[in-house]
Amino acid sequence: MTITLADLKTLVGLQLGKPNVDETAHLVQDLGAESADILNIALAVEDKYHVSIAESEMSEIQSTADLYALIKRLKGEP
Predict the structure, then answer these.
(1) With contact defined as beta carbons under 8 Å apart, do 5 and 23 qualify?
(2) pLDDT at position 31, please?
(3) Class of domain 5-75 (CATH, top level)
(4) Which SS3 state, helix, strand or coil, does residue 25 take?
(5) What are φ and ψ of residue 26, in 5° steps?
(6) pTM listed for this prediction
């Protein structure tokens, strides 16, 4: 499945109960995500996009844009 930033923003918004997610918003500081939310986002991403995110990679994610870049890299997309 091809990933789009719009789809990922929707996925993150659904996980956090936020209707509008800016790709540059910090997941924790701006969107109020807690560790369980981050885990749920990671699991949803892994399931939807068929990737495996290492814990060390997830700890580097600060925003939806960061997560988008990680998924594209894991899928080998430019």
Answers:
(1) yes
(2) 96
(3) mainly alpha
(4) coil
(5) -70, 130
(6) 0.91
Nearest to 23 by CA among 37, 6, 39: 6
Show me where the domains of the chain are located.
Answer: 5-75
pLDDT (0 to 100) of residue 25: 96
Mean pLDDT by 10 residues, the chain (78 residues): 91 95 96 94 95 92 96 91
CB 39 within 8 A of CB 15: no
Output the six-digit token pair for 56.
């060390």
Across 46-60, b (16+ Cβ under 10 Å) vs e yields eeebebebeeebeee
Query: How high is the pLDDT of residue 58?
Result: 87
DSSP one-letter code for 22: -
